[in-house]
């Protein structure tokens, strides 16, 4: 197609671009959009242009390449469909943050598409420098405005005022016009009651939530907020779009409420109590844990893991299995002495995991995992992942206007050919996993003498196979029984069902298993 034919097809066709940076600037009563529309209409009338479309964006000028409608406009520019794009001012088109943003201007220059503003018609072939300078000045102006705004907000913060909206804790109000803080009901009474419960010795968030009406997930945040002690603290700042901690000398700590809802001494005492607040119980881990099945039991009633709970009596330490959902009130499952439960489960493990069928499946699954960890196989997976990442980069470059459609097709074709080559190598290297009878015999011997193995060896086997037993505890104080409803193994990714309730009258009991 000749240049003359292209010009004839374009005619005076233009697209109008109207943009504001935020939704607030687009709200009713703001002059940003209406002023731009009026300016665009005047430009079109003065130059006798043929308006074919109007694009209205609520997007920052520094991130225009992330806006799908703007990318569609660039595609029309690259296809030489338009005589030009009409904007009220050049900074409405873009405000560059990096040199890559000038790909927008390059698309206009290659297709001789005009940028038409109130200052006149800009032809990027001859007016490239003025347009680039105007865009740079717009970006500089934006950064200067941002710095001035942040500086003004920082001054307000150091005066004890809150420049941003939202983010107020329960029972606190802020009048942005007067710059005054206050406590409001009923939230303030709930917070006061929560602190009274904590200072009175109640450390359960669930109980504090039940008595005050504050959601349990918010109790800790409420009890630690300094505004209830009358202090407005700012410990973080924004670096770009990332929130980072302030240096110690930059932390803002201003008294804004006097008298405070909570006396400063009581607030500090509450913080000490929160730091020393006892957790649901000690959770010893590793091969030296004082119980065999610690970390491998799951409550059948609520699905929480059973943890080891320590109790002391007459100077002795006793360990029990207790459901993690008991403390939060989600579960009322009974606790059971750890030595008693271990003895019951030791008798069950050979029956649940030591059968020939299960052992063969365990060995095959384990060997399959080892095969998947083969270095050559891993290299194939890494190569495929790199090719897929290369495909995403090519598509991203096309969306940014740095690649044409033909270049994108060539890159994707080359990537597909390389993917097929790696997949052929992967299939050629694959091999069948065969059963190892020696391993099966060793494993059968391990489960055959399970009850006589040292606890550390038992825990190694449970850890390596990823054993999880779903259990329920029932019975009276000293004659409790543990029921195994299912056993899951990570190596098999399957479950073995079992409904076994051993009789506890023949099993040893622990003198310290008097559980609440």
Mean pLDDT: 76
| Radius of gyration of CA atoms, rounded to a whole number | 35 Å
Helix count, DSSP H or I runs of 4 or more residues: 15
Helicity, as a percent range: 40-55%
Q: In what order do the strands lie side by side in the largest sheet?
A: 2-1-3-4-5
Structural class: alpha/beta
Strand content: 15-25%
Task: Give start-end ranges of low-pLDDT stretches.
Answer: 26-31, 499-516
Q: How many strands, what sense, and barrel or not for the largest sheet?
A: 5 strands, mixed
Shape: flat
How many angstroms separate the termini?
A: 90 Å
Total strands: 18
Question: Quick summary of this structure?
Answer:
The chain is an alpha/beta fold and 516 residues long. Helix content is 43%, strand content 19%.
Describe this structure as you would to a colleague.
The chain is an alpha/beta fold. It has 15 helices and 18 strands. It has helices at 3-10, 32-47, 68-78, 103-111, 128-158, 187-199, 205-212, 216-224, 264-275, 338-353, 356-372, 375-399, 405-429, 437-448, 455-465, and strands at 13-20, 50-58, 84-86, 114-117, 120-122, 172-175, 180-183, 231-234, 236-239, 242-245, 252-255, 297-299, 306-313, 316-323, 336-337, 467-475, 480-489, 494-500. The strands form six sheets. The chain has a five-stranded mixed β-sheet, with helices on both faces. The protein has a four-stranded mixed β-sheet with strand order 12-16-17-18. Helix 4 links the parallel strand 3 (84-86) and strand 4. Helix 7 crosses helix 8 (216-224), helix 11 crosses helix 14 (437-448) and helix 12 (375-399) packs antiparallel against helix 13. The longest helix is centred in the first third of the chain and has 31 residues, at 128-158. The termini are far apart. Residues 26-31 and 499-516 have low confidence and may be disordered.
